[in-house]
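Final report, section 2: Outcomes. Of the targets proposed, Type I-E CRISPR-associated protein Cse2/CasB is the one most frequently requested by collaborating groups, and we therefore present its record in full.
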Amino acid sequence: MTITPTTAGTDAPPPGNEAGQGAEEVPVHRLVTRATGTYIARVQPQYLADRPSAVAELARLRRGAGKRAHEVTDLWGIEGMDDLANLLADHGRFSRVEDAEEAVFLACTLWALHQQSGRDQGMHQRNQTLGGAVRALIRAQGTAGEDEEDSPLRKRLVRVGTAESLDSVAVRLREIVLLLRGAKVPLDYARLAGQLYRWQHRPERAGVQREWGREFHLAAAAGKKGRAAASGTDGEAIDRTLAADEEEYGGYAAGE
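The predicted structure is given below as tokens.
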């Protein structure tokens, strides 16, 4: 499962970036996002079509949900990791390879757990953020209005954000994913993988935590606007300066 960097040395670029030779530098978290999205976009339609190979693939992946990449030897060398290795190899020198592996592994195995036994829709859905998915889950369970802010589900999201180790993040995300699965609320696992990669670098952690909280609050604004549109009134505008950069996470699905 370990990916060997194409070059290494004391002159490696700062964490989170790779230094391509003669090409525009691409932050590694974008490659993590792309590798995860490409892999899931390839396997998810096959699973929905009930193809035996995809069903078996997800059964294997589920055994790693909530665990670390090195703990499940049966999953060493899954295709998503190969996709990551190929992307990293194509972009020159890089650092924090193990962080990239952990992010792809955790996102892919959680998606497999989320998708379990569901054939009517894909549980990986672009632009469905973690904070937005938790907000949608709260509403699916019948809580509305100001009670959303006091929901135990919001506290679960806060617990993910305040975790101090990747092991804790993995376990707490697994708990949320099981609840999302029960309510059939999808999640963008490619975006999540990129965030998990950045989270592992201490200087970037606070930024990822802010994103998760911002996603939760933006979903509230979007919900108010949607309800206002349905009732024919003017909704409260969303502060677009808080929205995630589409360029940051887009363009990863197969064929795009």
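Residues 129 and 188 are 6 Å apart (CA to CA).
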